[in-house]
Design a protein that fits this description.
The complex is a heterodimer of chains A (about 240) and B (about 375). By secondary structure, chain A is α/β, with parallel strands linked by helices. Chain A has nine helices and ten strands. Chain A has one domain: Rossmann fold. In chain A, the strands form two sheets. A six-stranded mixed β-sheet of chain A has the order 6-7-8-3-9-10, sandwiched between helices. In chain A, helix 3 crosses helix 4 and helix 5 runs parallel beside helix 6. Chain B folds into two domains: about 240 residues, no CATH class; about 100 residues, abc type-2 transporter like domain (abc type-2 transporter like fold, 3-Layer(aba) Sandwich). Chain B starts with a helix and ends with a helix. At the A-B interface, helix 2, strand 6 and helix 3 of A face helix 1 and helix 8 of B.
Chain lengths: ~240, ~375
């Protein structure tokens, strides 16, 4: 747990005169489930884009999996997995073809892909779906599959951007079981969510407001600190939406 | 490279699994060739013509018979005065009125010349041009007939128009280049812009962008399949027009294919550019159709001859890639000219391609930020 998988110091990102990320500093450790919370427009997306090598910081130090994000963003991409709220599998391809595609993009060999595909389908009880089109799968299964594909290449970190949007409570619970399992394998999970009950499942959470991190600790400590019963209360106390 | 190939394969799967895409790529070209070839043929056949014969002598009678018996024309009415002309055009069946002046035959005999007027229905400029050309050809033929009896006699009228390059005036020969131009814009610009914006809409573009694939690989991977399919399409159209209409390429086929590849690349870069400025598939479709297809059809010389255009439209058409491509492929296919005659147009196309690629790469980078 001591390996620093993400190291951010004094990160600033400006768009013109607008400061999207204002002097962020935090660390995330190996195998940790890190909740990245904040109201819409607080600057979460900008930070994730920088952490995943899509955008470079205006100033500050950002290291992801030991790689400098300002200097070598393309290298970062090989070390991370990513899944967003928007659905990210191709509906007109079969389950196996989707796996093959993403496995190939991350440079896995064909035999390795085959081996892992078999294991994965077995584990998810997915055998009969292997050659079905994604379009034929119920939403819950798709979401699980999308997550499995995001960690298929065994990345150091997986970024989940509101992964459970629009999913029923049962599937959400199963989804979080998968997240725990993944973290137990040593993969760091960096997750954003608007469901505050999910925030309780995280090892540590950070709350962003107007480009700054205003709180960062374990859910228990935050609740104590702000004298609140749930993370939701903490959130409402400190994360004022930008628009209001 | 392996990553890239897997990505290209996926793109082919998208195309082959979607029957609508397949239809657009292969159905539309075939349909267009056949429709333009048979149905919207612009050949003249049984065009309605009215006569205003102010002379009514033997010569005008002969000429009238010759025109009618040519098979291209059908007499709709015999007029008796000028005032009826406007009316008869309004009725719509008559496309041309032929007027012989008074004492036509006598003048021809005594003065060696006589005049006749052709008035065509200008609301259909293409048909009008064609019909008057046909009539002039027949009159000129008639000239030779009668001058055969009187050697070196001046003609009654001397039609200047000659049918170069397309002596049978087969309209298929003229539209095949246009169809190729249009299809390529359709497939390349429309389909690529749609397929890229689709990834954006589905959210898969995000996943691709955070993957080790480089943006240039993503774009190329999306474009390569359409490049291949478009190229196959050009060959398909050429083979089809050869089999069905007997139209063979007069010039170098290799040059023609090379120029087509250039134009495909140009259209693809336009498609990429469209996709970088539009956020939804509808927007991409709209820009492609209104921004590319319509000008291609209307202003590139495909349907309406550039020569007949208003100055302003003419100027606009200089900015449109299809204009140059149509010129190039008409030259190669119908006139059989070589590269030396089309290098200027080729150069324009090359510079346009470079311009569009540079623009879309810059746009794409800005969007990434």
């Amino acid at each position: 747990m001591n390996e620093k998988v993400i190291y951010v110091k004094n990160l600033v990102k400006k768009f013109g005169s607008f400061v999207a990320n204002d002097n962020l500093s935090f660390e995330v450790f190996g195998g940790e489930i890190f909740g990245f919370l904040g109201a819409n427009g607080a600057g979460k997306t900008t930070a994730i884009r920088i952490l995943s090598g899509l955008s470079s910081p205006t100033s500050g130090e950002v290291f992801v999996a030991g790689i400098n994000a300002s200097k070598n963003p393309e290298e970062i991409k090989k070390q991370i997995g990513y899944m967003s709220q928007k659905f990210s599998l191709y509906e007109d391809l079969t389950v196996k073809e989707n796996i093959m595609l993403y496995g190939g993009i991350y440079g896995l060999s064909k035999s390795l892909i085959k081996e892992r595909t078999d294991n994965l389908l077995e584990k998810l009880n997915f055998r009969e779906y292997g050659d079905k089109l994604i379009a034929a799968l119920p939403l819950g299964l798709r979401q699980k599959l999308a997550f499995s594909i995001a960690v298929f290449h065994e990345p150091k970190i997986v970024f989940l951007d509101e992964p459970t949007g629009g999913v029923d409570p049962i599937t959400r619970r199963q989804f979080w079981e998968m997240i725990y399992e993944t973290a137990a394998r040593g993969i760091t999970v960096f997750v954003t969510t608007h469901y505050m009950d999910e925030a309780e499942y995280c090892d540590r959470i950070s709350i962003m407001s107007e480009g700054k991190i205003v709180a960062l600790d374990t859910p228990e400590n935050l609740k104590k600190l702000y004298n609140a019963g749930t993370v939701e209360e903490v959130f409402i106390k400190i994360a004022r939406p930008v628009n209001n | 490279m392996k990553r890239f190939l897997g990505f290209v394969k996926k793109e082919f799967l998208h195309i082959f699994r979607d029957y609508r895409t397949l239809f657009i790529i292969f159905g539309i070209p075939v349909a267009q060739i056949l429709i333009f070839g048979f149905a919207i043929s612009t050949d003249v056949k049984n065009a309605g013509v009215a006569f205003l014969d102010l002379s009514k002598d033997e010569t005008t009678q002969k000429l009238t018979d010759k025109i009618i018996s040519s098979g291209f024309f059908k007499r709709t009415e015999n007029l008796t005065s000028y005032s009826e002309i406007e009316d008869i055009f309004r009725k719509g069946k008559t496309k041309e009125v032929i007027i012989f002046e008074k004492n036509f035959g006598k003048k021809l005999q005594n003065e060696g010349k006589a005049s006749m007027s052709l008035i065509a229905d200008g609301s259909e400029p293409n048909t009008a041009t064609l019909i008057t050309n046909y009539t002039m050809a027949i009159v000129s033929d008639f000239n030779t007939d009668i001058s055969g009896f009187k050697a070196n006699n001046p003609m009654l009228i001397q039609p200047e128009v000659k049918m170069f390059y397309n002596p049978e005036l087969k309209s298929q020969h003229m539209f095949v280049p246009g169809v190729i131009t249009m299809i390529l814009i359709l497939i390349c610009a429309l389909m690529t812009s749609v397929t890229i914006t689709r990834e954006k809409e589905l959210g898969t573009m995000e996943v691709l962008l955070v993957s080790p694939l480089r943006p240039i690989q993503i774009i190329l991977g999306k474009v390569v399949p359409y490049f291949l399919l478009s190229f196959i399409n050009v060959i398909l159209i050429l083979v089809l027009s050869w089999l069905v209409f007997g139209l063979s390429v007069k010039g170098s086929i290799i040059l023609l294919l090379a120029e087509s590849m250039l134009y495909i690349m140009l259209s693809l870069s336009v498609g990429i550019l469209i996709s970088t400025v539009s956020n939804s598939m509808q927007q991409a479709i709209f820009i492609s159709l209104v921004g590319m297809m319509l000008p291609t059809i209307l202003l590139s010389g495909f349907i309406y001859p550039i020569e007949n255009m208003d100055k302003a439209y003419d100027l606009i058409s200089y900015m449109l890639p299809p204009r140059y491509f149509i010129t190039i492929i008409k030259s190669i296919m119908i006139k059989g000219t070589g590269f030396l005659y089309v290098w200027k147009e080729t150069l324009v196309l090359i510079s346009m391609t470079i311009l569009f690629i540079v623009m879309s790469v810059r746009k794409f980078k800005i969007r990434l930020e």
